[in-house]
Amino acid sequence: MLSDYITPGDRLEITAAGVENDAELHIDSGDGEFDVHKSYRTRVYDIMTEDMISIEMPMEKTKLILLPIGGNFDLCFYTRKGLYQCYATVHDRYRSNNIYILEMELTTNLRKFQRREYYRFNCILDMQCRKLNPDEEKKLINHEVEFIDTDITLEDGLIVDISGGGARFVSDHSYEQGEFMLFKFTLDVDGKDVEYSLIGQIVLSTKPEGKENYENRIKFVNIDDKERESIIKYIFEEERKIRNRKTEDS
Questions:
Q1: SS in 3 state form for 204-247?
Q2: pLDDT tens digits for 36-78?
Q3: Which CATH superfamily is domain 121-244 in?
């Protein structure tokens, strides 16, 4: 059943499907333009039938993006069971309980989706890290598994956003693009502390203007599917907690 995979509140990304030429760079939504080269984030509102769901209309800044009825779109769902993708058509749009809704008719079955980019969750997480030494890097490149020396002192750091594909952390100094790092951190998943020891590769290391610390973005390079899904699950649990707190405060 569809509800076995997707539940109300799950986040999703929506992009235009079937764009074949530059003449179709925008879709007229009736209230502005939907840029077919952009992805818009929103949430599942309800599971109506096995081939019909409703979602909250996406927004950009403070403006609703009113997708056109009959338009075809690519949906990517971020769920507790991982990432799923399908195609859908806008069947209707309306307002309900002060929420603007899109009814989407699924035109393909859900499929498990593997992708390089993942939703980034802003957070403050303690972590420890260090650069791999040349011998460790060589073994990593040669796909040797047991090679990390855990007795070497690690530097304390702070992760400021995390996803299933990588993380961003702050440090007192910069790193070279392409350097490999060992990262250790703990997440609360299903009420239990789960420890992670992952290898990340520096994608970017910059010092924002007016800031004292460097910001560094890394991608995980040795993460397995179980660890990745666990991180995604943590993100959605934390998102739900935030959403629930906002509801209680309103």
A1: EEECCCCCCCEEEEEEECCCCHHHHHHHHHHHHHHHHHHHHHHH
A2: 667 788 999 999 999 999 999 998 878 888 888 888 888 989 8
A3: predicted glycosyltransferase like domains (2.40.10.220)
